[in-house]
Amino acid sequence: MTTATTDFTTLTGDYTIDTAHSRVGFVARHAMVTKVRGAFNEFEGTATIDGAAPEKSSVALTIQVASIDTRNGQRDDHLRNNDFLDVATYPTITFASTAIKHLGGVDFEVTGDLTVKGVTQQVTFPLEFTGSATDPFGNARIGFEGSVVINRKDYGVTWNVALETGGVLVSEKITLEFEISAIKNA
C-alpha cells in the first residue's frame, strides 16, 4: 500500500536510490521547434531523511555522464564529446544538497550544489513527496519527483549552431527531471 503521508517522522533514516526504479532525465529544445528528451542510465545516490526536522535532511547524487541516452547514438556521442559534456575530462555530474525546506503538505524545496564540467552552481528546485510503501520484498520505499531549469552556458556547455530562420539548434535552457524511488537502509 502506498501512502502520501504528511507525517514524515516515520520516514526518518538513511536511504539509497533504487536506480532500477528511478529516472534522472533532461529536456532540451531542438531547432527551436521541438523538445528532445534524454536520461542518464547510470547514477547513484543517497538521502538522509529527518522526518521531525526536514531541514536536517540531505541528498547526494552522482551521475555517470557516459550513460547519456537520447535514443540516438550519433547525438549521444556528440553530447559526450568536448562540444558538450566532455566525458573524458568530466566523467561525472554531481549534486549535493545544502538546504532542504518543507513548504507544507508534500512539497519541499531543495537547494544544493550542481557540478557539471567542473563548474559548480547553486540550484534550487521544488520536490514533491509522492508516497511511501513497503514493497513485496519487505523494503521500505519513498518516492520524490521534481525538476529544475538550468542554463547550460552557466556550466561551460556553450556549443551551438545558428539557424537560417533565426534562433539556435540547441536551447540554452535545459530542464533536469528527477523521479526517485529510494529504499531505506537496514
TrEMBL record:
It holds the Pfam family YceI. It comes from the Bacteria. InterPro entries: Lipid/polyisoprenoid-bd_YceI, TTHA0802/YceI-like_sf. Residues 14-183 form the Lipid/polyisoprenoid-binding YceI-like domain. Belongs to the UPF0312 family. This is Polyisoprenoid-binding protein. It comes from Actinokineospora fastidiosa.
